[in-house]
Amino acid sequence: MRRPIAALTLLLALAAVAHAERDDRNKPVSIEADRMLADDQKQTAVFEGRVVLTQGSFVLRADKLTVRQDAQGFQTGVAVGAPATFRQKRDGADEWIEGEAQRIEYDGKAERVELYDRARVYRDKDEVRGNYISYDSRTEVFRVQPSKDASGPPGREGRVRAVIQPKKKDEPAPRPKPPLELNPSTELGKN
């Protein structure tokens, strides 16, 4: 028995990216668009025109969002925009992860998110840029590849860029504990 097309909107699209808030998965999905075409036979839904998908702290914005569900119930989604963007609060931290690309793809079965064409991911003040960014939530591995064209300043074309800020040291380093004092044994030497 096929699930209704509404089940496709459970696209947890980029929730896997950078340890998003766990509670977001349990919140309802809301999608706004100028128009929608749903095909129950093909288990697809296409949202077009100023698309906004919201689930908890997760917000995805795109010009077009296509969502599919396979026979096993796994969802895939493709968001296209100029650029398509997402924003989500990180789990257990007071910081946000944001990303953008011309195309963002999510594969629920592989638990992988891929950003194509002028891809950027930001976390706090850290940033990584490339033409392609992939995140595998099973292995927690990011892969960033540069563009193959010659765009960019001379000597820097086709390169991956990352900016990583030093972490604040809010707390002073713990003081070393004094060595334990040893007391002479009263039991040794008694036979």
Description:
With 191 residues, the chain is mainly β. It is 0% helix and 47% strand. It has a single domain, classed as lipopolysaccharide transport protein A fold (Sandwich), CATH 2.60.450. It contains no helices and 10 strands. Strands 1, 2, 3, 4, 5, 6, 7, 8, 9 and 10 form a 10-stranded antiparallel beta sheet that branches. A hairpin with a 6-residue loop joins strand 5 (75-89) and strand 6. It is elongated, with a radius of gyration of 24 Å. Mean pLDDT is 77; it is low at 1-19.
Short description:
This protein has 191 residues and is mainly β.
Counting H and I runs of at least 4 residues, what is the number of helices?
0
Number of E-state strands: 10
The domain count comes to: 1
What CATH architecture do you see? Answer: Sandwich
Q: Sum up the overall morphology in one term.
A: elongated
Give the topology string: H per helix, E per strand: EEEEEEEEEE
Largest sheet: 10 strands, antiparallel
Instruction: List the uncertain runs.
Output: 1-19
CATH superfamily membership, which one? Lipopolysaccharide (LPS) transport protein A like domain
N→C terminal distance: 83 Å
CATH level 1 name: Mainly Beta
Question: What brief labels describe this structure?
Answer:
mainly beta, 10-stranded antiparallel beta sheet, disordered N terminus, single chain, 191 residues, lipopolysaccharide transport protein A fold
